[in-house]
Specification:
It is a single chain. The chain is of the alpha+beta class and 212 residues long. The protein is 18% helix and 32% strand. It has 3 helices and 12 strands, in the order H-H-H-E-E-E-E-E-E-E-E-E-E-E-E. Strands 3, 4, 5, 6, 7, 8, 9, 10, 11 and 12 form a 10-stranded mixed beta sheet that branches. Strand 10 and strand 11 (191-193) form a beta hairpin. It starts with 15 loop residues before the first helix and ends in a 6-residue tail after the last strand.
Amino acid sequence: MVASVYNINMLKGLSEKQEEVMRFMKKYFKENDKAPMLSEIAEAIGINTISTVNEHLSALEKKGFITRYPGVVRGIVLNDENNGMIEIHLLGTIAAGQPIDKCEDDKLIKIPRQAVSEYSPNLYALLVKGDSMVEDGIYNGEIVVIENRNYANDGDLVAVENEEGDVTLKYFYKEEKRIRLEPRNKDLDPIYVSECRILGILRGLTQIYEDI
């Protein structure tokens, strides 16, 4: 089971502008060893608005050519087959919505090395179910990469287990007498708990186009 990768010489299915974006980013990465800013992409390919750049990047991400990290400056990586792959365990499903029963269905998967913002030998993957994190670009059916650890700081995006043993993906905030687990969907309310168990923090996001 392998996460999506691309070859710069096989840009089939892309529009002319999407190809321009890909070729510019490939060149930029090679010359600068980092991702371009959205404004730099816009200027390079003659686009007037950042929103249009975002539309092209969203299309490229859905087609598996890139991975984006929500809220990270220059948070774009190229899912290039030459960048190498790492193997991690897919342990089950995590709710991006209301908590769901903890599920452990261990499978080994391969993901692009660059899909992980910070590598650790304690990484594992979970399949996202739900839409509570859509405003951060985390969608139903995607794979989140989690670093296994039992603590978090305010504002960390965590995999968390509540007192009933249900797990969910939310932002963690410790208040005076409770813990707030906050989604990124304006239609959903935060979840408040008195106690919870941190299962890890988000380290990456990718897609897999095979049945899991």
